[in-house]
């Protein structure tokens, strides 16, 4: 191996891949078999963290940064004057195996610029995964980025070797996409997604009949949207997202605050701040949709097209819907409990367990770990000291923001604790 | 007057001491590891010799009467090496044998402490799973050194065995001076003399394969190029990767 040359390629092709935020390595069920190498049946592990605080669990690289397209938001775009490089299939295999053996990574995240055409590129990505699985008996995690426009046959093959597949939708609105990526059509993203979804469904139904059906993309599929590049509203983003969750059974949608990388006048200029706070609010909204039983219409709608920056989306919803409060902690159902600001899903479970034994008071709730500075205005429990006053939303908001802890203020100062592998965004 | 039961610091030794407590029925007793013992003129010292049969009987008693889950928690908490562990665990075992719930009764102060010990050990174990960095030696063994806050290697063994079943590996705890070694079949405890110069870059070519240096170098480069300077947040970084672990992280070497 020519290490000098590999090093140069790695620098270029890791640098170009780092803007993809989907880095999770969990959710697969691939266990070590036949005394091979690797295991991805447990939780993903962050082996280190970048200096910006993001989890590093996969070797995330492009196969090449040559590209025939010219998407304005992308460092790899044709018109960008950067150094180009391309890995050979075997080089990626060797790097992955050797990094894995040293316990640097959980597996590989492989994406690519488009060289020649979609299928030619996709074929090579699949080849890497195939070699890892069949020749190296590798059971670590593999995430392949599907190339927009790749054919159904290749997508089928990709899912046989990869744990997760993704196509990045990149721009939340169709107009935005047309403006910034004129070579791409929305249908080019949708087609491979649909194929993967159908394969997963088919796999699940066959699996019931025939035990030996080869596993297909066990960690499902995900996608990513760039935020803040085209002036879209939060509603536009989250409706797109909700659509993807519903239509394609996505495991995750990632939101990536646009990092200005070009002087293109269609885009925010270089030096513009990365919208980290907005990104965090979107993840919180996403969380509410997936785990808290909120519907998208409740959180974002015509009257309320954007999320607030100073308060989290759940509190914001509560303040707009005071008629549902106060919630009686000792009687309310799961769904309502989950809507109390300051009460997370874990606390909901604890409340439901604990109230079987006794009526819960203020003290119990505190012990359970509920953040009372928010919750107190939205619930009643078995404490006489508690009083509900009729307050307006504005009064409540200023009360809560006035008493909230430093963590809260910290967040508003955009000292965000948000990139904990994107998995730990919490709403409570 | 307190009876001090001094044992060798092993889990078996501790279980043997518990056996002796039930056998001799001292009125006031303190179980102390020989490494931590301090002479106290008012206490009576008794040396407890580790006895596998006695230890096994106590362990079986714990699993049968208190439950497998409790046994697991007791073992993990023991690995915490905190100075109050023997006393807490002895009380837990006594309570458990009396039929009290010792796994979820969080109103009990000992159960809370047990839970807390298990939690800190679990977190450190998880960090070791993540932060261990193997280097390939010329003997074809993937070798890693660690200095965990608690004695976690016994808990790490299964994870690494499942993951690296086709390569020989050795993870060595520099603080406690023992390691776990996988020889392609089983994981065994080992003790070795490690030369002092093993981590000097000059001597490295003597111990490690030629490619090893290159892969470390590639990994360091990867770590650098994957960072996004415009999102830099060192506070968060340090929270995730506390400085005390840097010593053995290849990406953090100069
Ligand atoms: S096709 Fe992909 S790699 Fe090529 S310019 Fe567009 S986003 Fe970048």
Q: What summary fits the major beta sheet of chain B?
A: 5 strands, mixed
Determine the structural class of chain A based on helices, strands and strand pairing. Answer: alpha/beta
Number of helices of chain A: 16
Name the shape of chain B in a single word.
elongated
Radius of gyration of chain B: 22 Å
Low-confidence stretches of chain B: none
Helix content of chain B: 40-55%
Question: What strand line-up does the widest sheet of chain A have?
Answer: 3-4-5-6-7-8
- Tally the helices of chain B: 9
Largest interface in this structure: A-B, 49 and 46 residues
List the bound ligands: iron/sulfur cluster
Q: In one word, what is the shape of chain A?
A: globular
Number of strands of chain B: 8
Q: How many angstroms separate the termini of chain A?
A: 51 Å
N-to-C SSE series of chain A? Answer: HEEEHEHEHEHHEHEHHHEHHHHEHH
Structural class of chain B: alpha/beta
Query: Which bin fits the share of residues in helices of chain A?
Result: 25-40%
Radius of gyration of chain A: 24 Å
- Please list the strands of the largest sheet of chain B in the order they lie side by side: 4-5-6-7-8
**Strand elements of chain A, count:** 10
> What oligomeric state best describes the polypeptide chains here?
heterodimer
């Amino acid at each position: 191996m020519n290490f000098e040359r590999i090093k140069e390629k790695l620098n270029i092709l890791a640098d170009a891949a780092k803007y993809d935020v989907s880095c999770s390595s969990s959710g697969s069920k691939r266990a070590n078999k036949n005394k091979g190498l690797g295991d991805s049946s447990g939780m993903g592990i962050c082996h280190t963290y970048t200096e910006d605080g993001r989890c590093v669990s996969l070797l995330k690289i492009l196969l090449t940064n040559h590209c025939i397209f010219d998407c304005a938001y992308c460092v790899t775009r044709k018109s960008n004057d950067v150094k180009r490089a391309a890995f050979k299939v075997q080089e990626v295999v060797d790097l992955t195996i050797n990094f894995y053996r040293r316990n640097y990574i959980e597996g590989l995240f492989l994406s690519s610029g488009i060289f020649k055409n979609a299928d030619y590129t996709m074929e090579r990505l699949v080849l890497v995964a195939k070699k890892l699985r069949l020749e190296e008996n590798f059971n670590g995690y593999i995430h392949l980025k599907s190339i927009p426009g790749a054919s159904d046959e290749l997508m089928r093959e990709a899912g046989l070797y990869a744990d997760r597949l993704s196509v990045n939708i990149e721009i939340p609105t169709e107009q935005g996409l047309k403006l910034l990526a004129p070579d791409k059509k929305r249908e080019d993203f949708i087609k491979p997604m649909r194929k993967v979804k159908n394969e997963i469904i088919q796999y699940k139904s066959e699996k019931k009949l025939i035990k030996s059906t080869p596993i297909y993309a066990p960690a499902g599929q995900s996608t990513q949207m760039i935020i803040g590049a085209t002036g879209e509203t939060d509603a536009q983003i989250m409706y797109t997202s909700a659509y993807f969750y519903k239509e394609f059974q996505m495991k995750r949608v990632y939101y990536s605050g646009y990092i200005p990388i070009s002087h293109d006048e269609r885009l925010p200029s270089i030096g513009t701040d990365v919208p980290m706070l907005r990104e965090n609010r979107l993840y919180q909204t996403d969380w509410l949709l997936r785990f808290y039983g909120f519907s998208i219409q409740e959180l974002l709608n015509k009257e309320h097209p954007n999320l607030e920056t100073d308060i989290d989306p759940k509190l914001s919803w509560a303040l707009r819907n005071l008629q549902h409060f106060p919630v009686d902690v000792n009687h309310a159902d799961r769904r309502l409990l989950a809507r109390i600001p300051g009460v997370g899903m874990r606390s909901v479970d604890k409340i439901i367990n604990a109230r079987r034994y006794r009526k819960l008071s203020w003290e119990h709730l505190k012990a359970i770990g509920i953040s009372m500075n928010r919750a107190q205005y939205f619930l009643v429990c078995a404490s006489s000291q508690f009083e509900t006053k009729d307050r307006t939303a504005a009064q409540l908001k200023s009360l809560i923001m006035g008493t909230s802890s430093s963590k809260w203020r910290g967040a508003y100062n955009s000292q965000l604790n948000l990139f904990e592998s994107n998995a730990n965004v919490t709403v409570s | 007057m307190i009876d001090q039961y001094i044992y060798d610091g092993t889990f078996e030794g501790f279980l043997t001491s518990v056996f002796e407590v039930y056998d001799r029925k001292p009125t006031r007793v303190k179980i102390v590891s020989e490494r931590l013992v301090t002479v106290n003129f008012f206490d009576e010292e008794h040396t407890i010799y580790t006895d596998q049969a006695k230890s096994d009987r106590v362990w079986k008693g714990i699993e049968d009467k208190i439950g497998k889950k409790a046994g697991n928690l007791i073992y993990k908490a023991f690995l915490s090496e905190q100075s109050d562990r023997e006393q807490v665990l002895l009380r837990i075992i006594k309570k458990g044998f009396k039929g009290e719930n010792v796994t979820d009764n969080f109103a009990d102060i000992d159960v809370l402490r047990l839970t807390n010990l298990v939690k800190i050990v679990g977190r450190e174990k998880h960090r070791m799973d993540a932060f261990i960095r193997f280097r390939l030696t010329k003997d074809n063994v993937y070798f890693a050194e660690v200095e965990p806050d608690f004695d976690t290697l016994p808990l790490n063994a299964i994870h690494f065995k499942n993951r690296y079943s086709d390569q020989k590996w050795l993870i060595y705890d520099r603080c406690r001076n023992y390691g776990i070694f996988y020889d392609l079949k089983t994981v065994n405890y080992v003790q070795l003399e490690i030369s002092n110069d093993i981590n000097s870059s000059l001597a490295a070519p003597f111990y490690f394969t030629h490619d090893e240096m290159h892969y470390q170098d590639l990994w360091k480069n990867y770590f650098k190029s994957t960072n996004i300077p415009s999102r830099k947040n060192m506070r968060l970084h340090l929270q995730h990767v506390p400085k005390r672990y840097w010593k053995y992280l290849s990406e953090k070497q100069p």
